[in-house]
């Protein structure tokens, strides 16, 4: 895979920013008055586990999204190995009145056709 703008891939270094935000995210805990402490401890444990999983999933999704955007801007393409083979070129010559005029070497149409053939064989 080749890239049209490979210098854009240097922006992949900026993926460290969401990781730092994730690691240093400071949360303020709010005290909630509750009647029974046993129910509260069970509720806190469940929310901590689920919130931890949600935070990691959000981080992974952000990293994948930013990576996809950076790769899209670098414009990847696949190399076509058939492009290395010799291709056929078609040249259309105008057979109008202006090309049928006589030049110093003769008929301009015939001379230009002969020059194209000679140059193409090289």
Structural overview:
With 122 residues, this protein is mainly alpha-helical. It has two domains: 2-82, no CATH class; 88-121, no CATH class. Helix content is 49%, strand content 3%. The protein has three helices and two strands, in the order βααβα. The longest helix has 38 residues, at 37-74. It is rod-shaped. The mean pLDDT is 79.
Features of the shown structure:
single chain, 122 residues, mainly alpha, two-stranded antiparallel ribbon, 3 helices, 2 strands
Instruction: Give the topology string: H per helix, E per strand.
Output: EHHEH
Shape: rod-shaped
Q: Report the portion of residues in β strands.
A: under 5%
Roughly how many Å apart are the termini?
32 Å
| Content-based structural category | mainly alpha
Instruction: Tell me the strand order in the biggest sheet.
Output: 1-2
- Number of beta strands: 2
**Quaternary organization:** single chain
User: In which range does the helix fraction lie?
Assistant: 40-55%
Largest sheet: 2 strands, antiparallel
* Number of helical regions: 3
- Tell me the Rg in angstroms: 34 Å
Uncertain ranges: none
Average pLDDT reading: 79
Number of domains: 2
